[in-house]
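Justification of resources, computational component.

The compute hours requested in this renewal are based largely on the per-chain cost of generating structure records like the one below. Each record pairs the submitted sequence with a full structure-token output. That output is archived, and it is also reused by downstream analysis tasks.
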Amino acid sequence: MQSRIVLLTFFMLSSCFCTGQVTKKISKRGIGFSFTPFGKNTVYAMSENEELGRGVYSFSNTPYYAGNLYGFFNIKKNTRLVIGFGYSYHEIFATEKYYDGPYYYNRTLKVFTFPLYIEKTLFKYIFITFGGIVHIEHNYTYDHFTRIDEQGGVGLITSLGGTYHFKSGITVFAGPSLFIYNVQNSKLIFSDKVAGIGAEFGMSIDL
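The structure output for this chain reads:
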């Protein structure tokens, strides 16, 4: 499914960027938004199952959706620093393989995110980003049998895609993005990690 997301995104990019981009000096700063209308995520279980009193879990690829508002500042030619605020909604489906048979659980995560990353533009049409993300799960509740660790900590994000800048100062972009939560958890040394890939679309305007 992840490969289909990537292929569909790049197909849309090739359709959008078939004409030449306007050559114009990019503003030193701006604001924008992005959204991920479809993506897939899963969980990498890192906790000790015996201590939690649960069996061995396996997690399926399930949908997630996200939106972000951000501001950017050019730090040198074709390189900008981006800082933002976002919200993401994750569906989690787990199968517990226990001695008396498999059990199936559904759970949703609602997460506030605060990304900080570097964006680099290559060959005028392509961008790549890499950075960190502070995330806070605001609907976390302890459930002895269906819980995964609270998704509050620091993660990593990266993306690659196409961009188009108009004379008006508006820029549109799209491409696949990846994330992983809980690279460093705020409370635990070893913690379950939610990770995913999605198709991200967005627009910014120069100030």
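Strands lie at 29-44, 56-59, 62-76, 79-98, 101-122, 126-137, 153-165, 170-185, 193-206. Residues 4-24, 49-53 have pLDDT under 50 and may be disordered.
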